[in-house]
Write a structure and sequence with these properties.
about 120 residues, Diphtheria Toxin Repressor, domain 2, Arc Repressor Mutant, subunit A, two-stranded antiparallel ribbon, mainly alpha, elongated, 6 helices
Amino acid sequence: MYLETIHILSQHGKGVRAVDVAEYMGFSKPSVSRAVGLLRSGGYLELDENGYLVLTEEGKRVAGRTYERHLFLTDFFVSIGVDKEIAAQDACKIEHDISDETFQAMKRYVRQQHEKQKSVR
């Protein structure tokens, strides 16, 4: 969740600080600091010379994959009638645990359904 949050916040074009992550996620600064330390030691995150959080290439890969899953799952749940807020919450729970095989199968299924709808028109 932290990598995804840093990814989202960094898209706004300005540097991301640990306090920004804490505010966005509603977590305490000490919790975020601990997570930042773990992510740095895992090679997912670095601090620049101004103290901003910067995703490494591996961090970007993981964050991008998670964010793609979040967006897709949210849209999928909304398309089957789930309230948007509940869909986003459920997507957040599932995005980290769903296997790549299942996720890819869901994407193929949705793509096939869209193609069928286009051919009917």
